[in-house]
Write a structure and sequence with these properties.
CATH topology of the largest domain in chain A: Glutaredoxin
Distance between the termini of chain A: 29 Å
Largest interface: A-B, 24 and 22 residues
Distance between the termini of chain B: 38 Å
Largest sheet of chain B: 4 strands, parallel
Strand order of the largest sheet of chain B: 4-3-6-9
Structural class of chain A: alpha+beta
Strand content of chain A: 5-15%
CATH class of one domain in chain B: Alpha Beta
Number of domains of chain A: 2
Helix content of chain A: 40-55%
CATH topology of one domain in chain B: Fe-only Hydrogenase (Larger Subunit), Chain L, domain 3
Strand order of the largest sheet of chain A: 2-1-3-4
CATH architecture of one domain in chain B: 3-Layer(aba) Sandwich
Largest sheet of chain A: 4 strands, mixed
CATH architecture of the largest domain in chain A: 3-Layer(aba) Sandwich
Helix content of chain B: 25-40%
Radius of gyration of chain B: 21 Å
Number of strands of chain B: 12
Oligomer: heterodimer
CATH class of the largest domain in chain A: Alpha Beta
Shape of chain A: elongated
Chain lengths: 160, 431
């Protein structure tokens, strides 16, 4: 869970309320609302969930349950350059785990965490549909294919 | 789920995923930071027995073995109708006398009855009802009608959280548990000549919210609470078992005097509709000045989630609403907020069935027949009582004569009434 305490500005609250209104304040649209909020804020801190709870008139505990259930939703802010390593079957059998371990070692963080300077964050995902390039790594919107553990240092260097 | 759908509180939910999945409040914070009303229904229905109450038996035991303390115990009406189940007796077996004997055997110095305080509640709440009703009928719009009962601590927590704008609508009368504590540590402590600090008041309750209620700051004097510890029916049962007492072999004993004497009106507090029925018995006689011939207001009884009835107060049709389960209460409260409520008085109990289905009761595993037989047991005890109207309780009359003056007096207000707080959790918006 997130320990980061943020204070929402009035326009942030208005944004979330606006999203809820777009979806007719319907509790059944929770996932869509959360999706839009995560797109806007980059993550879903407790404060955002509380405003959503108010907007959709549903318990915040339930929203937290949904946020923690789906791996797509996150309560920790992503780094400036979010790194995602594909662990789908094709990437996995071609050594994605070793690549992931190398990223963990280089950055000193675990999956789901961000570096202290908030430059990089690390996540894993399942199949980006580019199995011919396995193993695949995404940094922001850029795709790297056929990545070997030795390439990791060079990839990170590009963002220094 | 009980918390979300029946009670509409939504304090807890399934969080995380797979092996990490648990039932927890939002952001896995403590319950005190959640919207929890402490009704305890999650404990009642937990399929794995993973949820339990905080056990206060060790503190009670410590008080009992402390020779400097006088330990006074009060037992709620619903406890006697369910305690037997923990010892293999059929649901609905009344164990009033055996429970009293067991409490004495455990070493309590005075075994009293919350029913006495229930009678006292009726005196105060009934007076308040008639006072507000009188003003209302004269067209005084400052008098808030309907009046809502305030005996149930889960319900009090609920409206403080969700309906803080209506916090001057419920009766200001304290719950019987707290009235008992306030009287025990003043009137009774004076009578036996001890300081309130040397008295420990323990309550046996069918309820887990009572544990929270007795710890509220406003119910203490200089840091000394009116009620020190509240333990549930289940905790009492395990306490009795730990002491190796076989409740079935005990002979029936009576409560001590004076705070153990009660009428049938106090007994039925434990079932949904009981508080308002008890209030009607007293309010009718006080309002009309006539003797009430028919004491059983069967139209107020039953297990429907929301009920309504009209009681003829000698020409004045008094409209009464009853809700049990917080989801049902929310429906009536939404009407009150919208100004659409037709009722003069509404009784609310947080737990399905009233206190007999409370979060501290022996587990009934969702079997409503058990709850019905507990209710039947309370109505049986009521019928057997020689006195069945709160204002006829001679010890209540004596208490007012010697100590309180009259219902609603300044002293009664000081000791027996309270006020409510806006406890709505807010998101802080920084501009």
């Amino acid at each position: 869970m997130s320990h980061i305490k943020i204070e929402l500005k009035k326009e942030d609250v208005d944004f979330i309320k606006g999203v809820c209104t777009t979806f007719n304040n319907d509790p059944q649209e929770l996932i869509n609302v959360l999706h839009s909020c995560q797109e806007h804020f980059g993550y879903l801190p407790a404060e955002v969930q509380e405003v959503v709870s108010d907007g959709l008139n549903m318990p915040v505990a339930k929203i937290y349950g949904v946020v923690t259930f789906y791996s797509f939703f996150t309560m920790t802010p992503k780094g400036k350059h979010p790194i995602s390593i594909c662990l789908g079957t094709a990437c996995y059998v071609r050594g994605a785990e070793k690549v992931l371990d190398e990223f963990k070692k280089e950055l000193g963080i675990q999956v789901g965490q961000s570096t202290k300077d908030n430059k990089f964050s690390l996540s894993s995902l399942r199949c980006v549909g580019a199995c011919g390039l396995a193993p695949v790594v995404l940094v922001g919107d850029k795709t790297y294919g056929r990545v070997a553990p030795d390439d990791v240092k060079n990839i990170l260097k590009e963002y220094e | 789920m009980m918390c979300n759908e029946v009670q509409t509180v939504g304090a807890i939910s399934a969080v995380n995923r797979g092996f990490m999945a648990t039932v927890a409040p939002a952001f896995e914070q403590n319950l005190e930071h959640s919207t929890c009303t402490y009704c305890g229904q999650c404990v009642s229905v937990c399929p794995t027995g993973a949820l339990t109450e905080v056990n206060h038996v060790p503190q009670v035991l410590r008080a009992l073995v402390d020779p400097t303390k006088t330990v006074v115990v009060q037992t709620a009406p619903a406890v006697r109708a369910a305690l037997g189940e923990e010892f293999g007796l059929a649901p609905g077996t009344l164990v009033t006398g055996k429970m009293t004997a067991a409490l004495r055997a455990l070493g309590f110095d005075y075994v009293f009855d919350t029913d006495f305080a229930a009678d006292l509640t009726i005196m105060e709440e009934g007076t308040e009802l008639l006072d507000r009703l009188g003003k209302h009928l004269k067209g005084d719009t400052s008098a808030k009608i309907p009046i809502l009962t305030s005996c149930c601590p889960g319900w009090v927590n609920f409206f403080e959280e969700y309906f803080p704008d209506l916090k001057d609508v419920p009766s200001t009368a304290k719950s019987p548990q707290q009235m008992f504590g306030a009287i025990a540590k003043t009137y009774f402590a004076d009578k036996i000549g001890i300081n309130r600090k040397d008295m420990v008041v323990v309550s046996i309750m069918p309820c887990l919210a009572k544990k929270y209620e007795c710890q509220r700051d406003e119910f203490s004097v200089d840091g000394n609470p009116d009620v020190d510890f509240s333990i549930s029916t289940r905790e009492l049962a395990s306490f009795i078992k730990q002491a190796n007492i076989d409740i079935k072999t005990l002979h029936d004993e009576d409560f001590d005097s004076p705070l153990g004497e009660s009428t049938g009106a106090g007994v039925i507090f434990g079932a949904t509709g009981g508080v308002i029925e008890a209030a009607c018995r007293t309010a009718y006689e006080l309002y009309t000045g006539k003797k009430l011939e028919r004491l059983d207001f069967t139209e107020l009884r039953g297990m429907e989630g929301v009920r309504s009835a009209t009681i003829d107060f000698d020409g004045l049709p008094l409209k009464i609403g009853i809700a049990h389960g917080l989801g049902n209460a929310r429906k009536l409260l939404d009407d009150v907020r919208a100004g659409k409520s037709q009722f003069h008085a509404i009784e609310v109990m947080a737990c399905p069935g009233g206190c007999i289905g409370g979060g501290g009761q022996p587990l009934h595993h969702g079997n409503s027949e058990i709850i019905k037989s507990r209710a039947a047991a309370l109505y049986t005890e009521d019928r057997k009582k020689p006195l069945r109207k709160s204002h006829e309780n001679p010890f209540i009359i004596k208490l007012y004569d010697e100590f309180l003056g009259k219902p609603g007096s300044e002293k009664a207000h000081h000791l027996l009434h309270t006020h409510y707080f806006d406890k709505k959790k807010k998101v802080i918006i920084k501009k």
